[in-house]
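Inputs:
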Amino acid sequence: MLTRISPSKAEYTEFSTPSDPQPASVASRLIAVYRIASDASAIEGRAEAIALEQSVELPLSAVDSDVVLQDIVGEVRDVRELRAGLFEVRIGLAVSTTGSEPGQLMNMLFGNASILEDVTLADVELPAEMLTHFGGPNHGIDGLRARVGAGNRALTCSALKPQGLRNDDLARLAGQLARGGIDYVKDDHGLADQAYSPFAARVVMCARAVSEANRETGGATRYVPNITGNLDTLRTQLRVVADEGLDTVLVEPMISGLPDFHAITRAFPHIAFIAHPAMSGAARLAPPLLLGKLFRLLGADATIFPNHGGRFSYSPETCRTLANAARDAWGGLRPCMPAPAGGMTLQRVPEILDFYGDRTMLLVGGSLLAAKERLTDEARAFATRVAGYFEPHG
Amino acid sequence: MLTRISPSKAEYTEFSTPSDPQPASVASRLIAVYRIASDASAIEGRAEAIALEQSVELPLSAVDSDVVLQDIVGEVRDVRELRAGLFEVRIGLAVSTTGSEPGQLMNMLFGNASILEDVTLADVELPAEMLTHFGGPNHGIDGLRARVGAGNRALTCSALKPQGLRNDDLARLAGQLARGGIDYVKDDHGLADQAYSPFAARVVMCARAVSEANRETGGATRYVPNITGNLDTLRTQLRVVADEGLDTVLVEPMISGLPDFHAITRAFPHIAFIAHPAMSGAARLAPPLLLGKLFRLLGADATIFPNHGGRFSYSPETCRTLANAARDAWGGLRPCMPAPAGGMTLQRVPEILDFYGDRTMLLVGGSLLAAKERLTDEARAFATRVAGYFEPHG
């Protein structure tokens, strides 16, 4: 009953170059790119079925309206065999069906198709007016670098954890990481608004610990609180953040929902948003598309993703494609900072920098925190190694 | 690099009975149940790694605090081999880490683990106080039956589509389906707030068409608008719905985000919410858990899911488990109405009713609409067949 070939096992290296948005002349359609596991004899029918599923959700014979047949029904644009049993299918979907709303865009791209186990949403190509409408990062790579005075170097990031610590312990860690010169010190994505470390008090205490460290060192470390909950809660927390003079937050778009994520990036344009991949899954929505393109489209200034060789299973090729989708030229959108993470260590810094270059934020959490009382020194070693890596060697 | 066995291929038939919430004495932990594809020799280590990933996200050696070690670190409670290479792992997670918030609950259950391709979230067991806190359906099966005067019979549902039709065409379809005696006439989940059928006008026109049909027939058909967007938009649309005197809506919780979904079920307790599975995927979060249990926990009065033998690939066992998770006794939560859908036809009504019994809402869309000018008759045949099926045969 279930197909055996998972389309997720194919690499996403042949990703459409984001530098080439469709010209306005075909602006009425966006292109959804699916990977479908299928016999060659069945693929044309599968492609047509998905074009209907993702548009009118009816057999063509049940559609009476000429307007719907011409302007709304999905169009199979191309079917290409990637390897035996795996096909790439490009389907044109009417832009008008998205209602210019992020949730409805996802619904059109993958709403019902997400329930088909042998279909992966691999990529999307959007006309220029959709890029302009959604708007992308408010700050992006340049803004994140500028606010910590980093010039053109790679950035460093670390995390406050484990959850379960009280706010004063978290604030102490934040101060130590700031003294070590980490650019962005973020909450663990598990820190929400729990009784043992309530949000509002945590923000104040960690922000002040980082401020104090910055005054001592002359540094510009940013404390990055994790915001959670529904749109009301997200806004309330953003106001706490802004009131404390902070300008960067962490958010999990696949938990908050993409409509709320987009709403807050537009409502708080002075805040930089670092997107965390929690609940993003890996199997059915291509990571370069979701974490690279779509999070960027909706306003992520940086996007955290599991680096190859860590605790997760992304390949180097997936990581490279994801990073480039986040930061390569794409219409008028600002580049989004790729932030490889997930079991990284100081020893891997040179390798990671060679791989991603300097338009990157390196996120090292647990392996710094394991240094315990030597945390500030370990953080400093991390910051120094990253800052000095691309400098000319004497 | 990627494992070859997908845990999603296992059936979810050994689902924990929802009638047995944990007693208060173990209230401080919820149980997350994972399916992990692994070699037998590695599974203990994998289980421990996931217990850490989903709690402190640190190696144990990096955790200093006794409180965190005792109260926060995930505990592997059981590891069981389901078949060669596939294991069920039960992990106790601290209730306190969820902050009693739906998004953070999902984050704790599957945030980072969702990125591990060989791990599926199969089930969850929640202590009684979490059921009480989230609250579940406001109306559920009894309420949905009562508002259409259905007594104890199965319910019928159909959908307005294709998208791209104008509001007057949609309203005409709504009237025809209502005249045929369908209980719930819902928007297609692709109907959002598009230029060609704007929400507010659609609600008014379809509601009035259904009212008029009800006045003629003496029926109690409900029109069910699809609400979309961020929390602000959802609330605005719900106010339009309530102002028009409607009492039931369709919503896509995996697109709106679970925090917003829960927020609106609590803020609009007089409205019944039918949950649509768009973007729910199928592979990594067990459908009975997500569409049955979790949507119910957060307030779905009915839950739509792809029936076996239709356009999607759920097996009969998955469907039965899902339906029972939605409606079996679970603490004090009201039962949620299972609504099998996805390529259903009138011919299948007896089989579907035999399979699901009368605490079911049958959703037939496209195959009714294919009747075109005979839509009212076809709708009446559907309604009559369902209403009469369990009556004693003379």
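Chain A touches chain B through 90 residues (CB under 8 Å). Flag for discussion at group meeting.
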